[in-house]
Specification:
With 135 residues, this protein is mainly alpha-helical. The protein is 58% helix and 4% strand. The chain has 7 helices and 2 strands. The chain is elongated, with a radius of gyration of 17 Å. The chain starts with a helix and ends in a 7-residue tail after the last strand.
């Protein structure tokens, strides 16, 4: 990653080239790979997302599991703490929660947030405004 940052900085590599290099020979391409790259390379996340789309590079997994099938979470039972968090999110955000809002909650709620997010599909909550602009 540092080599890619240096190559981007000195102009010997374009953003397209860096994304292709980073993505090649990977079966799994999680959004966090590109979010971290965006920060390291000091490039706007939406620009990264737009370039990924233009290059036909598909994200294979979302940090928040946004690509999960709805029936996968239908029978999920939550701990009372996670259920409270789902209700708090519903009350404060409604049925649409911004991806950036979840990232802000992560330091405080950690594992509990992951449990709550898994129940979003069955609770009718949709994650919107992907940090990479993918949805």
């Amino acid at each position: 990653m540092e080599l890619l940052k240096k190559a981007l900085g000195d102009g010997s590599l374009t953003l397209d080239g860096a994304l292709i290099e980073l993505s090649s020979n990977r079966k799994d391409r999680p959004c966090t790979l590109y979010l971290n790259s965006s920060s390291l390379w000091e490039v706007d996340t939406f620009l990264i997302g737009r370039e990924l789309d233009r290059l036909g590079i598909k994200i294979t997994s979302c940090f928040w599991d946004c690509f999960a099938h709805q029936n996968k979470t239908a029978s999920l039972s939550l701990t009372p703490q996670a259920e409270s968090l789902v209700q708090l999110i519903l009350t404060s955000q409604g049925r649409e929660v911004r991806c950036s809002f979840l990232w802000k909650l992560l330091p405080q709620y950690k594992g509990l947030l992951f449990e709550a997010v898994k129940a979003f599909n069955s609770s009718g909550i949709k994650i919107i405004n992907c940090q990479l602009g993918l949805f």
